[in-house]
Amino acid sequence: NLEIKKINDEKKAALAAQFAAEATLRRVHAAQKDDEMPPIEAIITPLEAELKLARLE
């Protein structure tokens, strides 16, 4: 049971990281279409926040 819980937690964390990375890529692509790249902090900060929230769940 403990192993199953560990695997489920790892899977959940991996999915959260994947969703956060995909959202970041969407922001980067949208910014590139505008020909105006925002500062890297504007892209990384939301990603870090999403990952922190996922870890707390």
TrEMBL record:
InterPro entries noted in UniProt: MAP70
Keyword Coiled coil (UniProt): yes
GO annotation, biological process: cytoskeleton organization
Cellular localisation: Cytoplasm, Cytoskeleton
Any Pfam family the entry gives: MAP70
The keyword Coiled coil is assigned to this record: yes
GO terms assigned for molecular function: microtubule binding
Keywords noted in UniProt: Coiled coil, Cytoplasm, Cytoskeleton, Microtubule
Main location: cytoplasm
Signal sequence range: none
GO CC terms, sorted: microtubule
Annotated family: Belongs to the MAP70 family.
Name this polypeptide is given: Uncharacterized protein
Organism of derivation: Nymphaea colorata (pocket water lily)
